[in-house]
Automatic annotation (TrEMBL):
The gene is cca. Belongs to the tRNA nucleotidyltransferase/poly(A) polymerase family. Bacterial CCA-adding enzyme type 3 subfamily. The lineage of its organism: Bacteria, Bacillati, Bacillota, Bacilli, Bacillales. This is CCA-adding enzyme. CTP binds at G27, R30, R111, D154, R157, R160, R163. It comes from Sediminibacillus halophilus. Its EC number is 2.7.7.72.
Length: 399
């Protein structure tokens, strides 16, 4: 019995009842055989996408042209793909031709690594023509077929190999490694979005040092945007101690270690989303502030709460241990949560200084007050703040 697949078994049975063959395949089978928690379940079948759509009530057509649909069943998603072989990778992006074939073995042959080319039927029996099970036992990543050919067909597989090493603590079989080191340059053919997607998983892997080691030893790192030609930056990767759960955490530390490359440059070269870029900037600000000074009320006030865990992970790993409770207690004690909570406003300032022209000084004054209130040097009381500001900005002082 393999309970993790129980819902999936219904899908296989239903497809078989309609005269098709269907198997579990890919990462879920691999992870099940390794004994690690399985993620998304992939199913490979002789049924065409239209036939799958006819059989199941809830089907989302995510990639019909590649033969893939998502079947929703009892709140779970199953990626169901029609058996296929792919030919011609001239543009390095989409197979020129996707030909549906009623042949499980050919479908397995197009898959990247032997450990990912194992099919499993509804009884848990495996179909394993490329000896993926023994690769799993050896903790070995090897391509299905000749490595250099498989990497030329789709250079992204090189990065996939390294991210699996980082996720699974597997080695690269020697021929697979040599082909990867020889072919590293080909990664340039791959779009940055797809590269970033794999790198994100590599850096989040529990065996990240292994992934980084391979990235550097194969020299694949020297073929990646931003890293290219920057040996110091490449070397700074060896300072990585723990997995980065988010891309923003990784770039934050890389910028901290190698300040020649700015966050904007990273964002542009890696096509980061605006959100990731912003988070990286906020995290970087918090890290550079706290590494120079300390973790104080001002830092906690400025740190967005959704970045708290990232901040704690980085600070604890690369500076000194800090507890979540400590930061939360600082947060709880904050006299204000935002600038708007100040008991003075811009309008007050204008009223108190009728002789002054409106201008940037108003915002500057409010920011100074904000900081002093947050760190507890001034109480958030209008009369006290008025006195302070009258003294600081009295008519004799110049703009
Ligand atoms: P994860 O646990 O991260 O989902 P996975 O092995 O399932 O890992 P997916 O990207 O979900 O990876 O792909 C599902 C399966 O499709 C793989 O196991 C592999 O058999 C096949 N596959 C994916 N990408 C490629 C590729 N670039 N070349 C060949 N086969 C691939
Ligand atoms: Mg998967």
């Amino acid at each position: 019995e393999f309970p993790a697949f129980s819902n999936g078994k219904n899908i296989l049975e239903k497809l078989e009842q309609h005269g098709h063959s269907a198997y579990f395949v890919g990462g879920a089978v691999r992870d099940f055989l390794i004994g690690r928690p399985i993620g998304d379940i992939d199913i490979t079948t002789s049924a065409k996408p239209e036939q799958v759509q006819d059989i199941f009530p809830k089907v989302i057509p995510v990639g019909i042209e590649h033969g893939t649909v998502i079947v929703r069943h009892e709140g779970e998603s199953f990626e169901v793909t029609t058996f296929r072989v792919e030919e011609g990778y001239s543009d390095f992006r989409h197979p020129d031709e996707v030909e549906f074939v009623n042949d499980l073995e050919k479908d397995l042959a197009r898959r990247d690594f032997t450990m990912n080319a194992i099919a499993m039927d509804k009884y848990g029996e495996v179909i394993d023509p490329y000896l993926g099970k023994s690769s799993i036992k050896e903790k070995m990543i090897r391509t299905v077929g000749t490595p250099s050919e498989r990497f030329s067909e789709d250079p992204l597989r090189m990065l996939r190999a390294l991210r699996f090493a980082s996720q699974l603590d597997f080695q690269l079989e020697s021929e697979t490694f040599s082909a990867l080191a020889d072919g590293a340059e080909m990664i340039k053919e791959i779009s940055i979005e797809r590269i970033t997607g794999e790198l994100e998983k590599l850096f989040a892997g529990p065996f990240v040092s292994k992934g980084i080691g391979l990235l550097r030893r194969s020299n694949l790192v020297d073929c990646l945007p931003v890293f290219k030609g920057n040996r110091r930056l490449q070397k700074s990767l060896s300072q990585v101690k723990v997995p980065f759960c988010q891309l923003s955490e990784l770039i934050c530390m890389l910028v901290y270690w190698e300040q020649q490359v700015t966050i904007s440059e990273w964002a542009k070269a890696w096509k980061l989303s605006n959100r990731t870029k912003k988070e990286t900037e906020q995290l970087y600000e918090a890290i550079s502030y706290s590494s120079e000074k300390q973790i104080d009320a001002w830092l906690v006030y400025q740190l967005p709460s959704h970045l708290l865990d990232s901040f704690i992970r980085l600070y604890t790993t690369y500076f000194s241990p800090v507890s979540r409770d400590y930061i939360l207690s600082l947060n709880k004690a904050l006299p204000i949560r935002q600038k708007r909570d100040l008991s003075v406003t811009g309008a007050d300032l204008i009223e108190w200084f009728p002789e002054r022209k409106k201008g940037p000084w108003i915002n500057q004054a409010l920011t100074s007050i904000e900081k002093l209130v947050v760190i507890g040097e001034l109480p958030n009381q209008k009369n006290v703040l008025k006195e302070w500001v009258k003294h600081e900005y009295h008519p004799q002082s110049t703009d």
